[in-house]
């Protein structure tokens, strides 16, 4: 074959190297190779070890952030704030940036920054140091619930010192505007967890945490793991919104609570006493307008006070009520039809009964007292003689209906039920002592509710501290919507007792003229009782003094009970607790615009 013909055939059957067909073939081969690489990588990621690669991507490029829920407020009966969450910030760190200098070189600056943060934020140096050194992480909590001004200042100062990697996120701070006002009821929160909310440690904050807390949300998003850890706008983003907590409305009157606490503090300090409590009830509804304790604490700084001051002594401490108990004993006796307010009693100077001799607080020979005189003079002997008229078990039944021996179940944490002896423990000797307020124990709120039964015309209304209804942490529903009422004594018995109690504050007849409220009719009763010591099982020489009463006596609006533990000035219920009662009652009547009834006070005879 000639060379010429051979060349022509080659041109007809082959492809020139520079021809388009040749270039396309080469391109398809390259594309096929690239797709083969991608395919192999995809098989490796999705089939060979998908979990490990997903975890690696997450650790290097995603951040999980808590979105804090706003905790519900605690409000007084008028909507005034007693606890709220205000603007605060959490401080977080990007350890990779913290430990990278301005030239991009890795360094160990964590110790220096940890010292600075520990000093400024009062966080633990040894806790945050390993977090700042964890350069495999792009997100570490440093401090929670920091006041916004402080957090901003600290981050700015760190930046000025050459530290990158600190930033802030929203994180509400719990604030108690009144400081110690109702702190014994409200309670407080603990230090926030590093990745969660603060744990409630006392009071309503703990009891109604499910109501107040809400539910934190969360966010997960992708960050730039190469340079500065900024969020990637089009990267992975998952958000679960926070659900804010509900407000808790209480029956407390914040201003009245403030005033009651100040009067109580001065009373305890002037008497050089150990402690005290004061209760103010709305007579008709049983709602607690004030429940004060002293000593107490500042809810914003609870750790600065002794542990024993962080609760509510007004419900947790129990004691023998002394002669205030006579109100319950003698009104029950009137209701049973055994006596009237004018029943005459011949009262000896002492009374030998079974295992002991009963005396009055004042020395006297045989005196002639009416039942009103027994109350006005606070005679133990006269009370025991009258109580002899009860049928077996009758007094115990009445006291149980008044609410003694069981908790008030208002939702206040740490309440003690007190002790009302029963069964074989209820002997004739026990009845004698219980009749005038010994061998029975109560808490302050419990006793106030019992006396309020007389003020309310003989109908006991369960006390309440929550407006409406709320569920406690143990599943109990409490509040003003759920109170129960029951008649304990007749309205006539309650009326007679109120007239008798008026004589207690009469300067000529009674023992507590200092409890009077100018312009108003006042019904009241003093109490003085020895304190039982559980360690020795005996009376230890200290005393509980108290005063309980209501006003206006002929149309009661408020019932107030003041109790002081171990006064060292030698005073009793009339001289120590009586004046405090007068001040608190006067303020309450003025605050709520309660006018005097304009009627004449009781003039029941006290002697015959």
TrEMBL record:
Cross-referenced Pfam families: PBP_dimer, Transpeptidase
Record field: transmembrane: 21-40
Protein name per UniProt: Cell division protein FtsI
Family statement: Belongs to the transpeptidase family.
Signal peptide positions on this chain: none
Domain Penicillin-binding protein dimerisation: 67-226
All copies of domain Penicillin-binding protein transpeptidase, residue ranges: 276-585
GO biological process assignments: cell division
Keywords from the named record: Cell cycle, Cell division, Membrane, Transmembrane, Transmembrane helix
Localization of this protein: Membrane
Keyword Cell division: yes
């Amino acid at each position: 074959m000639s060379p010429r013909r051979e060349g022509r055939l080659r041109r007809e059957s082959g492809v020139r190297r520079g021809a388009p067909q040749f270039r396309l073939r080469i391109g398809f081969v390259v594309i096929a190779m690239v797709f083969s690489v991608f395919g192999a990588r995809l098989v490796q990621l999705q089939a060979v070890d998908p979990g490990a690669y997903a975890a690696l991507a997450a650790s290097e490029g995603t951040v999980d952030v808590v979105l804090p829920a706003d905790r519900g407020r605690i409000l007084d009966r008028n909507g005034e704030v007693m606890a709220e969450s205000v603007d605060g910030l959490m401080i977080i760190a990007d350890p990779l940036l913290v430990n990278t200098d301005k030239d991009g070189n890795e360094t160990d600056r964590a110790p220096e920054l940890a010292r600075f943060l520990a000093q400024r934020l009062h966080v633990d140096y040894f806790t945050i140091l390993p977090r700042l050194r964890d350069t495999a992480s792009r997100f570490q909590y440093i401090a929670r619930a920091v006041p916004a001004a402080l957090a901003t200042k600290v981050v700015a100062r760190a930046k000025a010192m050459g530290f990158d990697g600190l930033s802030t996120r929203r994180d509400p701070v719990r604030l108690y505007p009144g400081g110690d006002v109702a702190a014994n009821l409200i309670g407080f929160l603990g230090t926030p967890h590093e990745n969660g909310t603060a744990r409630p440690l006392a009071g309503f904050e703990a009891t109604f945490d499910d109501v107040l807390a809400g539910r934190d949300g969360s966010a997960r998003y992708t960050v730039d793991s190469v340079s500065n850890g900024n969020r990637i706008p089009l990267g992975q983003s998952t958000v679960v919104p926070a659900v804010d907590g509900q407000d808790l409305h209480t029956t407390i009157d914040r201003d009245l609570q403030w005033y009651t606490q100040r009067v109580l503090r001065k009373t305890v300090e002037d008497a050089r006493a150990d402690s005290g409590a004061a209760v103010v009830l709305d007579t008709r509804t049983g709602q607690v307008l004030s429940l004060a304790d002293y000593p107490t604490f500042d809810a914003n700084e609870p750790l600065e006070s002794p542990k024993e001051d962080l609760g509510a002594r007004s419900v947790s401490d129990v004691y023998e009520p002394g002669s205030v108990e006579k109100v319950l004993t003698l009104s029950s006796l009137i209701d049973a039809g055994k006596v009237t307010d004018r029943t005459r009693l011949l009262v000896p100077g002492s009374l030998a009964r079974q295992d002991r001799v009963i005396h009055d607080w004042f020395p006297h020979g045989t005196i002639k007292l009416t039942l009103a005189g027994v109350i006005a003079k606070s005679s133990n002997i006269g009370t025991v003689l009258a109580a002899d008229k009860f049928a077996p078990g009758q007094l115990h039944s009445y006291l149980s209906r008044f609410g003694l021996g069981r908790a008030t179940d208002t939702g206040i944490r740490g309440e003690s039920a007190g002790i009302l002896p029963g069964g074989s423990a209820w002997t004739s000797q026990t009845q004698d002592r219980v009749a005038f307020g010994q061998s029975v124990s109560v808490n302050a709120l419990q006793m106030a509710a019992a006396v309020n039964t007389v003020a309310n015309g003989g109908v006991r209304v369960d006390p309440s501290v929550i407006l409406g209804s709320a569920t406690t942490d143990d599943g109990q529903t409490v509040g003003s919507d759920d109170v129960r009422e029951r008649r304990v004594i007749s309205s006539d018995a309650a009326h007679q007792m109120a007239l008798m109690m008026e004589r207690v504050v009469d300067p000529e007849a009674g023992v507590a003229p200092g409890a009077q409220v100018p312009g108003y009719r006042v019904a009241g009763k003093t109490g003085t009782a020895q304190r039982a010591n559980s360690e020795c099982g005996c009376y230890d020489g200290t005393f509980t003094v108290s005063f309980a009463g209501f006003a206006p006596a002929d149309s009661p609006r408020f019932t107030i009970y003041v109790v002081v533990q171990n006064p060292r000035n030698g005073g009793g219920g009339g001289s120590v607790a009586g004046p405090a009662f007068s001040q608190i009652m006067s303020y309450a009547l003025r605050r709520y615009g309660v006018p005097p009834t304009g009627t004449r006070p009781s003039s029941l005879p006290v002697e015959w």
